[in-house]
Amino acid sequence: MSTSDTSMQPRDEATAPRMVRARGFGLLLVLTGAVAWIASGILVLERIALYKNPDYVTSCDFNPWVSCGTVMKSTQAALLGFPNPFLGVVGFGIVITIGMALLAGARFARWYWIGVQIGVSLAMVFIIWLWSQALYEINALCLYCMIVWAMMIPMFLYTTARNIAHGVIPASAAVRRAVAEWTWVATTVLLVLTAASIVLRFPGAFFGA
């Protein structure tokens, strides 16, 4: 995987903020992808256990509000006809592979990064939908699902920042600099807002009934 990446000149790579450089971004993909992949894998194992025994109590059934079993038994948990975590196992495996390739020095063409952006963006839309369904339709939380949500936020934002900073997504020089330098702020704000929405929606899970 040594196709040339014509979206960025070497001097830009050297002066770009660390997390949108090849190695920094590659490390972020490996770490977030690995955590999300493990969480997805655990969900797959738990779902298989539920298939075998409908009375099985999952490892994250803590109370009426935090119950993976409740979420797994919902129709939203198998949107395409099979358990959603299978998508995570495949998708995050691809993310880890891309990150490892970047750490090894691989360079990709612009069309490849456009594909990565589309894939990560669709995954983020799916995660937002799952978040809304868990909070307002299923009325229960899944611990491992929330771990995946937390990993998708920096994965999506930094992929977008990387592609804007490198010219894959057209933007002015000022926007490219601002996005590269302030993505960590947007990431922090979204993580805090997501956590706050969960606490406010299910206060009993954190502060008692």
TrEMBL record:
Keywords: Disulfide bond, Membrane, Oxidoreductase, Quinone, Redox-active center, Transmembrane, Transmembrane helix. GO terms for molecular function: oxidoreductase activity; quinone binding. InterPro entries: VKOR, VKOR_Actinobacteria, VKOR_sf. The chain crosses the membrane at residues 25-45, 86-104, 111-132, 138-158, 179-200. The keyword Transmembrane helix applies. The keyword Zinc-finger does not apply. Residues 22-163 form the Vitamin K epoxide reductase domain. One of its GO terms (cellular component) is membrane. It holds the Pfam family VKOR. It is a multi-pass membrane protein. It is found in: Membrane. This is VKOR family protein. It comes from Paeniglutamicibacter gangotriensis Lz1y.
